[in-house]
């Protein structure tokens, strides 16, 4: 969008970087507020998340697609956590939508870490009264998130999976052939 508006690639990349860091901070701020009402703590959490040195190494090298996915993680996790508290279907759909946006942005590098984050939170969510109901809620939310997230991004994922078979990554020797 910035390239279309300004017709300058360098300006567009810089504006996209600023936008992604701003979105990352806003997402982390609202995520922190969903767990605690401390606005100062939420602001500090947002600043720390925005100034993460690991992400800055990607930005310096020009990998803005990783930063785009990184900026959407707090939103996906926020709606996952909210889905376990109230309105399971709507919040799970929103979480899946943000995961689909991550995939469209090219930030698939962080999806496995996000899955581990969701599973860890789900494991801690299990502790409490009515274990079966909580487990069922986690499974139902996970299925909805996976169906929406990967269903909406199938237009990008499926051709990529087909292309891997034709590329040099897919033409290597398999483990069974090695044995």
Please write out the topology:
Blueprint: H1 2-6, H2 9-35, H3 39-50, H4 53-60, H5 64-85, H6 88-105, H7 111-125, H8 131-152, H9 154-166, H10 175-178
Helix pairs in contact: 2-3, 2-5, 5-6, 5-7, 6-8
Q: What is the SS-derived class?
A: mainly alpha
Q: Enumerate the spans where pLDDT stays under 50 for 5 or more consecutive residues.
A: none
User: How much β-strand is present in the residues?
Assistant: under 5%
Helix content: over 70%
Q: Which outline best applies?
A: globular
Strands, count: 0
| Radius of gyration based on Cα positions | 19 Å
User: What's the story with the biggest beta sheet?
Assistant: none
Q: How many helical stretches?
A: 10
How far apart the termini lie comes to: 50 Å
What's the rounded overall pLDDT mean?
86
- H/E order of the elements? HHHHHHHHHH
Describe the structure.
The protein is mainly α. The chain has helices spanning 2-6, 9-35, 39-50, 53-60, 64-85, 88-105, 111-125, 131-152, 154-166, 175-178. The model has no long low-confidence stretch (mean pLDDT 86).
